[in-house]
Amino acid sequence: MANDAPLPSECAISARQISKTYVHARVGAMQSSLREVLTSCVRRPWRLLPGFAGRGHTDDVPALAPLDLTVARGEKLGLVGRNGSGKSTLLRILARITPPSTGTALIRGRVGAILEVGTGFHPELTGYENIFLNGAILGLKRRFVQERLDQIVAFAEVADLLDLPVKRYSSGMYVRLAFAVAAHLDCDVLLVDEVLAVGDQAFREKCLARMEALVAAGRTLVFVSHDRALMQRFCDRCVLLDRGQLLCDGAPEAVYARYAALDREPPAA
User: Fold this and answer.
1) I want to staple 12 with a disulfide (CB 3.0 to 4.6 A). Which of 39, 56, 61, 220 is the partner?
2) pTM for the complete prediction?
3) Beta bridge partner(s), residue 24
4) Are 1 and 104 in contact (CB under 8 A)?
5) How far apart are CA 238 and CA 231, in angstroms?
């Protein structure tokens, strides 16, 4: 995936047959102690041979089935679906945090991602250092980030914490700084997961107002939320995912009608 991919001028995101499969150990298949691991290696050393280790003890768990997705520049796309449907996995692939198992996802411009708490910042670095690290990742000059620093700090309201490692932040303070950074470094594409639920109500409203300003300025938004009112407020198109499959793509009202019917079905065992 690359920022300078040769996409049509009207396209911000182009995903082709992207999927994600994780390999999980079966329950009960893992040795419970180092002694058991060493004993197993001595008794059955052939298990150390390439291609043999772990055979019969792992399962492929599909998190996202192959799907195609195109998002136009300036479009506001909502991702909806039950827990475990693949929404966050899709966002992580688009944010280049995790690679897809198959396919390619091409994005035009700089990407700002506000995903689950713990993503995007280095826990050992201070808030101040993480601001500049994020700017460097986006390809921004240090002088540009310095010019935006006061705006970021004022928005996040974490001036007293900037010299502390972010691992010492509460989840709410972490989200405040993460949102402020992504919302003030001139990203072309903004990926937002349900992290806004972590903050207090006053800060949440400030974030939503900032998001409205960004989308009004033509930024592309991909937004995950279970809040139907927020989806209708921000998104002009929605995609419904379920069990890793793309079920529906269209106007929010139509997609939510399908989602409501799906939500009455029992979840997978």
Assistant:
1) 220
2) 0.75
3) 59
4) yes
5) 8
Other C-beta atoms within 10 Å of 134: how many?
Answer: 23
Q: Which residues of the chain have pLDDT under 50?
A: 1-5, 27, 29-31, 52-55, 269
Q: How far apart are CA 114 and CA 197, in angstroms?
A: 12
AA letter at 112: G
- Report CA-CA distances (Å) from 256 to 79, 237, 238, 247: 11, 11, 8, 12
Give CA–CA dist 247/85, Å, rounded.
11
Helical ranges in the chain per DSSP H:
34-43, 87-94, 127-137, 142-156, 171-184, 201-216, 228-234, 252-263
| Three state DSSP letters for 184-216 | HCCCCEEEECHHHHCCCHHHHHHHHHHHHHHHH
Return the pLDDT at 158.
87
Backbone φ and ψ for 177, nearest 5 degrees, come out as -70, -40
